[in-house]
Every structure is written in structure tokens, then in C-alpha cells.
Amino acid sequence: MKRLLCLLMCSISFLLQAQNDSGWIITSGKVSNYTGVVAANGRIGILPEDKPFKTKSIILNNVYEKASELGVSQIVSGMNFANLDMEVDGEKITEAHVSDWHQSLNMKTAAFETSFTFKNKVKVVYTIYALRNIPYAGYIDFKITPLQNVSLKVTGKIETPKDFIEPLSTFRVLKDNETTMPILQTVAKTRFGSQTIGTSATFIWHAINSTREDQRPELHHNKISDYDNELWFSKDLIKGENYNFAWTGAECASQDFNDPQSESERFVIFNLLTPRAALLQGHKDLWENLWQGDIEIEGDIQSQLDVRLALYHLYAFSRSDSDLSISPMGLSSQNYNGHIFWDTELWMFPPLLLLNEPIAKSLVNYRSDRLDKAKQKAKNFGYQGAMYPWESDDTGEEATPAWALTGTFEHHITADIAIAFWNYYRVTHDMAWLKAKGYPVMKAVADYWVSRATKNEDGSYSINNVVGANEFAPNVDDNAFTNGSAITALEFAKTAANTVGETPHPEWEIVAKNLKIHKFPDGTTMEHSTYNGAIIKQADVNLLAYPLHIVTDKETIVKDLKYYEPKLAEEGPAMGQSVFAVIYARLGDAEEAFRLFKRSYEPNKRPPFGALAEAATSDNPYFATGAGGMLQVVLFGFGGLDITEDGVVQKNPILPREWKKLTLKGIGPDRKTFVVK
């Protein structure tokens, strides 16, 4: 009876664990059309491949070099320390001779695992971590199970991009008292010498005293060239006896450190001398803290996985201690040069503001830290206040390629930033931040819009010659979203001034009340003064209903929805569908909201893990902007959450019939929970 009870309890425990894991782990076997998902920690992004021990790239956040001699800046794809080779009985393991191939992403612990069997000789499991607790370091944990007696050889590498210059590759065994620390290292400059990159790596045997040379396998250095630096060991394995070791690397740049070489060594030494359990627990604890802000969906496991993957990427691409922002592709690639756009403030920032206020603070601080450059740009173009760049890098100057009209004319981003700033204050009520960082930016933005607007003969104001959110229509007058965001920024600046005890400039209110929003004869909002029904790249007019709350009457909201949804181009980015979905949910139409929610991302998913491309017709994952849009549907649409002067409140939530229950956890500074049944 006791045994039966024990078996029953074990079965229940197993089922509960499986159910729990089902919303956190995405798994895949071998597929023909493969797009990886990144392991990232807000500083580095490691992108695995579908080949044994191979990674595609390591992206370094906020580290930039010119993309070409006459080009603009581009985020750096650094040295790759996460490629290894493994030989069994003298034969290199390749994808041609492996079976039982599986890869999985555990979103709860940010662990990317690969497992396979090689020729019935060894079973291999290895897990990639971009350590959250050691943000410039990666860690690959290996478990080798020999299925027969075999000889093993493992080679760790530092591979330097061929366009880097002046590489110096070394291997040294550092020593302090009886502690020895073997360090493989390469130091080089990026292609035009703007950055010095230092990368260090080593093997770790946590189960033994790996600091003593007589207790670890002998290490051998093989410098193929200064661009290919290798360290290897060999070991005879006995059938059935698991063999565990790790490979760790750290990569530092002169952007962040005066001496990136030495700092990379110190991080590797820290990982070498810290017990494995403690090192990985520190990483897992920080991810557990991140997941205090979470979204739980009952009754639809696929939606749960999709939503968690979106939130995982926003967390993986950012840090609360960095004062850095998030580019459209995060740390997954060099797409869009790793620059910062409106994508952050309008799409990614709102979910993070609700679910992780410390990260949201980093995002707004990124802009306040670059206020002086925005003021300089305004002055250079003949305006007052602050004019933020359409594409921003580490400098805060305009980083858009000169041929792109967006860089010279897409000005709504300046208002988008101020709106994000006021929303940050409305959620946190952080008066010290508002006075020191928030209001100075909002005031400068308001002054810009006053100088940017043109007064018409009838007393109204226009903002002329802009590129709006719909970039298919360049150099138009009175773009709906540009004018709407300017109105909102001006109104918020007035409220912020009164909040901090300052006197708002009277022209802020005058311009805000008189900026033109054009209408068709039937009352439908026109996208700009000469709009004639052309296909649009993404939602523009509809943003006046959400998130701007300028168009508030239901009749006009519905007219604008019905008019503009059919005009969205298939090659447009995902966010337009997200906006429509939020608005339909707020109107109480769960069916239309759910249809558009799924349409906002499902056509963009790429196998095998569901990484999001920018559009249904593109192949450039991971599109963090789209992730922000779909999360807003859940939070501000189905969840009914709204940001008000009183903080985050819930208004008229609605549940799709496909879901049984929606739980929003860790909302706002008080970490509140909201439930929709």
C-alpha cells in the first residue's frame, strides 16, 4: 500500500512538473529550416546554431564600430569564444554522424541545451548560459556519458573576425600562491580601431581542484593564427561514468573598460574559482527575480509559450543596471545596426514598465543621458529644445544612414520619448527622478515642438515636411501620429511642470490645442493632409486611439479601424496588427482582438523555436519590437490595464474564448497581480 501510494505521489509530482515545464521550455528536434534563439544577459548575446558545439555570433551591447569606411555605426559582433570541437576516438563530431538531436530553451533559467548521441559511443549534453550575474561572460556546461570506453579530445577556441585588426593571441598560466589559472586570450581592435576587444577563456573541472595543475587534464595551446586561438585537452573515458566540465569565456570592450584585456581575465578567473552550483545559482536567482513580472495563460499552451518567449527576449536584451536601451533586434544580430529607434519607447517600454520597472528606468535613463546631444541636434537644424535622433547609438547623435529620409525627417520619436518619460513617472511617482532627469527632457521636448510647429492664418498649427510612422509616405504635412504625439508630449510637459513646481511655457498649451488633425468628410481620420487611401506600412492614425487617447469616441475609433486595417501592407512590421488588437479588446470585441493578436505574430514565427521576424515576408529575427506589440495586446488589451495619473489601473478586461484564465503578475512597483477569468 505504501509503495502504491509512493508511486501515485511520484506520478502526480511528475505530471505537475511536466505541466509546469510545458509553459517554460521550447524544444525541437532536427529541422531543415532553422532559426536559433539567443542566450543573452543584456550585455552579450550568444546565438546558437543547429550544429554540434557551434554558435553563430556573439553580439556586444552598446559597443559600436563603423559598418564601412563611409558608413554609420554598427553594433559589434565580437570574437566568438563559444565554438568548440570534440573528437571521440580521433574522429571529430559533426552533424553528419549524430542521432537523437534535441535542442531546448528553458526560459525560466535562460538556459539553451543541446543533446545528441554520437555513433553509439557517447551521449552529449551541453547547456549555454549568458550569465546574468557575470554580464560580460558566457558559460557552457558539458556532460558526457560514454556508451563504451572511448578517448575524448575537446578543443576550445577564440575566433576573431577577419576584419578586426592587430590581434594578439596568447595562452598564459597565471599563478597566485598555489592557485594556477590557465587563460586563453585574444586582444584586437575593431576594423577601424574604434574599440579594443579583450576576450579570455578557459576550461573548468568543478568536481576537482581545477586550480592545481596536477589534478586536471593537461592543457595544450594551439595558435593556428592570431585570428584562431585554441586550447585543448584529452581524456580517456570509461563506459557509464559521466564526465563533466565547463568552458567559460568573457568579452570586454574599451567602450566599457579602460583595460578590457585584464577585465576579461578577471571574469574568467572568477568563474574558474567559483563553485559551479553557486555560479549558476546566481544566474538563476536573477532570472527568477525577473520572472516576478510574468504573464500566465491557462487553456492555450501555445499562446503561453509565444507570450513567454516574447517576454524572455525583452528581459534577455536588457538590464536594470545598465542605463542602456534595446534595439529592434536586441542582441540577436547586427540588423538595423543595433541602433535605438522609437521601437523602444512606443513598443517595448510599456510592457517592461508594467512588468519590470527597474529595466524601464534604464531605458528612459538612456535618453536622459543623451539630452545634450539632442539639444545640439535641435540647434543644428534651427529649432529650440531637444530633437532626438531617429536612430541612436552610444553617442546620442543621429546614426541613421544619410540616404534614409527617416533620419532627417521622422521627428515623432522626440515626442515618443517624452510620452515614455511621463508614463514612467505616472507608474512610479518617483519625484526625485522626475526633477533630475524626467522633467528636463520633457521641457526640452516641449520647447522643440513649439519651435517646430508652423502657425496657420486661421490660428491653427501644422507640423510640415515629416515622415510619419507610416514610412511609405515621406515628406508630408500634418501626419496624424506625429501631430498626435506632439500634442500628447506638450500636454504631459505642462502637467509635469506643475508637478515639479515649475511654470509651464504658455505656448505649450496653445500649440497643443491647435495642432491640426485632418478628417475625411465622413469623420474618418486622415493620415496626413493629402492622404488618398494608399497602402500603409504600419498603423499610424490608429495610434491616436491607443496609446495616445486623442481619438476617444467609439464611432471614430471604429471608422478608423475599419478603414486602415485593409490598407496594411503584408511586408509591413507586426506592430500594426497589435495596435488594432488592443483597440478591439478595449472596445469589448474579444473575437476580433484575438484574431489580430494571432495575426500580429504567428505569420512571423520562424522554426523551430518561434523566433519572430519583423514581417510575414522577412527573415530577420529576433524582432523585439514585435514582441513588445504582442505583449501590449495581452496587458493593455485583454488584461484591461491602463496607465493613468493614479498609476496602473484595470479597466474592462476581456478574455478570449480560447483562454480559460489570464494572470498578470508583478505589475508596477508594488508587484500587484491582476486576474481575468
Automatic annotation (TrEMBL):
Could you name the domain of life of the organism this protein comes from?
Bacteria
- Fetch the InterPro entries from UniProt: 6-hairpin_glycosidase_sf, 6hp_glycosidase-like_sf, Gal_mutarotase_sf_dom, GH65_N, Glyco_hydro_65_M, Glyco_hydro_65_N
A Pfam family that this protein carries is Glyco_hydro_65m
| Annotated signal peptide | 1-18
Keyword Hydrolase part of the UniProt annotation: yes
Ordered alphabetically, the record's keywords are: Hydrolase, Signal
Give an example GO molecular function: hydrolase activity
Record-annotated Glycoside hydrolase family 65 N-terminal domain positions: 40-164
Q: Which SUPFAM superfamilies match?
A: Galactose mutarotase-like, Six-hairpin glycosidases
- The Glycoside hydrolase family 65 central catalytic domain extends over 308-503, 528-601
From the Swiss-Prot or TrEMBL record, give the protein name: Glycoside hydrolase family 65 protein
Q: Which organism encodes this protein?
A: Gaetbulibacter aestuarii
